[in-house]
Amino acid sequence: MKIFLTGATGYIGKRLLRILAQQHEVVCAVRDIRRMQVPPSIAHRVSLIEMDFLDDGCLDLMPASIDGAFYLIHSMSSSRKYFELEERCAINFRRCMSQSSCQHVVYLGGISNEEQLSPHLLSRQNVERELSKGSYAFTALRAGIIIGSGSASFEIIRDLVEKLPIMVTPRWLNTRCQPIGIADVLTVLVKSLLNPATYNQSFDIGGPDVLTYREMLLEYASVRGLRRWIFTLPVMTPRLSSYWLYFVTSTSYDLAVALVNSMKIEVVCKDRRINQVLELQQMSYRETLERTFEKIANNEIVSSWKDAYSSSDFSLDLSEFVAVPTFGCFVDRREVTYANREDTLHRIWSIGGESGWYYANALWEFRGFLDKLVGGVGLRRGRTSRYDVQAGDALDFWRVLHADRKDGRLLLFAEMKLPGDAWLEFRLEGSRLIQTATFRPLGLIGRLYWYSVLPFHGLIFSGMLRRLAA
């Protein structure tokens, strides 16, 4: 069978692709093909189409022969028009599927059983309504909190529990939810597709445990063997709650606002018919946490929410920045002879995250702190894999634009708050390691910024280059 997969570069899409391609031919619709890295073991079963469902012209690119499709396009972006954008995507997708031979569409949305919903849950509900109008069979799966290595919910829980022995928290920590493990979500998705028992129905999906967010934090602490104390304040406003979440965790501010608005609403399954329909038995919250820690320990994090562009509040098309400009730019270029090619590549491909920046890490952390103060992403995003990077990955306050280990070139683009645009490139040529920092200033302020940080570049960049080549 031929399966059409949207959101293939996202947290769930990346994982689902690996499962689907074991048995089916998969067509992935992505906005930027350069950002899509298909594992070699399944490359013969996967084809890529560059499509943007915000563009009405996407109908011309749609393959006619499709058996089933997954709609995994979601937006937690900083755009104030995300409701209209998500609706347009859903309408264009529905038109594409209706003109193809697609028999069944599966949509993963959010649990929305309460009368009062957050703007994002209302948007999910609207997307479901638009998709259900197609000429195909339709199934809506509604999930609450998804727990797994690299998931936004898990990373936030980890940030809070690992960093704060005592927490003074907003009262929404007493809101109930029904978490589900990412492995169980993937199982439901795969078993639902082209299954007549799921046609033209909607299902809530959740694990066996109904917990408050406070209980989830304490259970995490129990699994990790940590003692934590949590106190809730009834007077903490949504704005203060958002700032609290933003500064303590690795979320962006706009994402923190969206999460706070959603966390005030109970996301509990009304019924769990899907378990009987598909003959499923989900893992408990504790079992899911234990499985997640195993994946992290073995460096088996397939995808992370941080790699989504919404984690950076960056609204531009990053594909426009792959070609580093030269006109009107300041350039800091340094080079040194490296000792061993493979050792040097290993250090370059491991840079950032837990490995740090090899020299003056305290200054890098201070720069990340300053970035957080002005609404940037800071250094807390880290990286998905400790020893590997791919185009599109988040890497602290950088985004990977190009990563070719064979050619020995890694290109990063700055997503920190800057009066201009910045690139950092590492390139091996012959026996030399070349490190180039490029800055395109925005007006006079940008030029003043470059000259103000120039003395620190001499210290940080030269020290980092020596360590990489040692």
What does this structure look like?
It contains 13 helices and 19 strands. The radius of gyration is 23 Å and the shape is globular. The N and C termini lie far apart (51 Å). Helix 4 (152-163) packs across helix 6 (213-224). Helix 3 (119-131) links the parallel strand 5 and strand 6 (137-143). It has two domains: 2-305, NAD(P)-binding Rossmann-like Domain (Rossmann fold), CATH 3.40.50.720; 312-469, Alpha-D-Glucose-1,6-Bisphosphate, Chain A, domain 4 (2-Layer Sandwich), CATH 3.30.530. It is of the alpha/beta class and 470 residues long. The longest helix is centred in the C-terminal third of the chain and has 27 residues, at 443-469.
- Give, in spatial order, the strands making up the sheet with the most strands: 3-2-1-4-5-6-11
The chain-level mean pLDDT equals 88
- Shape field: globular
Termini gap:
51 Å
Number of domains: 2
CATH superfamily of the largest domain: NAD(P)-binding Rossmann-like Domain
Q: Indicate the multimeric state.
A: single chain
Helix content: 25-40%
- Indicate the CATH architecture of the largest domain: 3-Layer(aba) Sandwich
CATH topology-level fold name of the largest domain = Rossmann fold
By DSSP (H or I, 4+ residues per run), the number of helices equals 13
Count of distinct strands: 19
Write down the Rg: 23 Å
Q: What percent of residues are in strands?
A: 15-25%
The largest sheet, given as strand count, sense and whether it forms a barrel, is: 7 strands, parallel
Main structural class: alpha/beta
Give the uncertain stretches in residue-range form. Answer: none
